[in-house]
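The data are set out underneath:

___
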Amino acid sequence: MVAALALLPGCLLVDTMRFQQAREAAVALPAGPLPLDLSIQDGNGLITFRGSVNGKADLLFALDTGAPVSVLLAGTETAPLGLDLSDAQKLGDSPASPVGSFRFGFALDFGPVSLRDLPMVAVPIDSMPCREKLDQLGIRGIVGADLLRHYVAELDFDANRLRLHDPKVWTPDGGTILPLEFKEGHIYVRAGVTLPDGMPVDGLFHIDTGKNTPLLLRAGTDPALILPPPGGKVRTACYINGLEEQREGAPVTLRAGDAAMPDVPSLYSPPGSLEMGSSIGTIGAAALRRWNVTIDYPGKRLFLKPRRSTGATAPS
């Protein structure tokens, strides 16, 4: 979706500029003194919570660190909003570009915090390539950077809470610290994997809670990252701009700073995949859930702390 926003045809350029300006002007309003807790649920591996849109529609949202813009999946559940998507069109020049429409002035209320004057991309849910999966999940909204950029966001998976801290006064209390890199609104960290043959591969990894799988490696981005041969297990991944077949690989050790996570299931995407950016892989929600994770957008830092029940271990 966001790659499409960066490659819009000229006829949408004016709306794109207005959209970005509106995003920058949108405000976050906490319901009381920080920190505040937002209850989260595990929605088939995704991080979900409920929110009200314009006080008219109560929808299930996914917290997606891979979403620099907020998205509404428009259908029956969003009918009370009166969205007119007759102007929906391809948001890019690629045949795989999603269909959508820019909409402005939304109020999202998540209980402890609300967003005001927020622009969103409305995507007709019937245009999605995997409508049946979305119906199973029940997700109709996606929010990421538009919420997280205002706070230090602590994902406490032991308590099933998203805890929002004031970045001006919050101080870390230990854990593995990884600098965040921002590219086109996405967040990345420098990390590595140790393959089953002992070969270490290091590089840039996309942090994406919008993926419910643990780890995706992009074949061909490093000589050691080779697409598993045909005949193995294949998984069909659903993106907002299409479907992609990914092959299962052997478990690897994920290394992040001074922490290591052994036996992480791996998937491989083929060269030229739908994954964005120049990263060698994506760390998804299923892997991140093995830690308690704090994302400091303003300070450009990611913190990992072992969970009380299941956590990462220091490398030997």
The longest helix spans residues 13-25.
